[in-house]
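Example complex used in Figure S2.
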Amino acid sequence: MAEVNWHTFFFLVAALAACGFAIAVVISGNIVRMAFYLVMSLGAVSGLFFLAGADLIGALQLMIYVGGTLVLLVFGVMLTSGGPFARMKTPRWQWALSIVLAGWLLAILLKTATSVDDWGSASVSRSHVPPEAAPTARAIGLALVGVRVDRLAQQNQDTQAGMAGYLLPFEIVSVHLVVVLVGAAYLARTKRRKQPAQFPQKSSTQSL
Amino acid sequence: MNIMNILTQPVSLSHYLVVGAVLFVCGVICMTAKRNLLGVLMGIELALNGANVNFVAFSSRFLRADGQSAIGLDGQCMALFVIVLAAGEAAVALAIALCFYNNCTTIDVDQASELKG
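Predicted assembly (325 residues):
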């Protein structure tokens, strides 16, 4: 009996978890359950990142996405829920239209993903050897500062000139984050609410 | 046996792209079919993660037959920027959702029709 490829095994576990919980997010009607399923799905996606050799991105996915963005989303769910078990049902025809269009998109994407021969063949020599540790933190850190250590062997001078690092996008994203924080804090500041929070009711046009 | 056949084959790039496609399409369905504004936001996060899976898969050198990654470190840096920008966008979108809830006492996007032409 041939040896089990453990990389494939863990990939299947993580991929089925990610896709399964994503489908659960779509199907579920309760917003709190949707948030939890999303947490599980993105955790599984982080596992996929680790399996592909992107260790820094996998760790950042857990820290920033699961530990930050989704916690923020859960806070939003807490602050905007109309009642303990409120469910908002979408009409059947909207579900049907969404699923038809999304199914069409999925068919196109799957056809494209499986059509290129180069993408379908994995590294044969590594079929029984797990991927070696490939720490990417140093390379990514240096790329963010401006030095592309993975492209040092580039001989063509014209191409070499264009291989600057990611310093400019890094600075732009930093400023962007400052603007986002200030903007979000200002938008979400404490204001007078129209009416005290009650169980679901029709919106009123009276002002305080 | 079929299961053992699957478990002995190495995983290739197209497997990752299939996972990315499924995540993206689930995000698209959430964006279009959920009435809760936070459900729409969750769909946005799912779609962004589908794209991230694609980026990281193309940057990996373990998924191709020749041991060379398609786009190398560029894919991981793009995924990094997508993660950071998605976090920022989620913060602003949640601030808007809170404002909407405070003004209309509902988080239902179907009720957001005051500006309808």
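The CA atoms of residues 94 and 100 of chain A lie 10 Å apart. Chain A touches chain B through 109 residues (CB under 8 Å).
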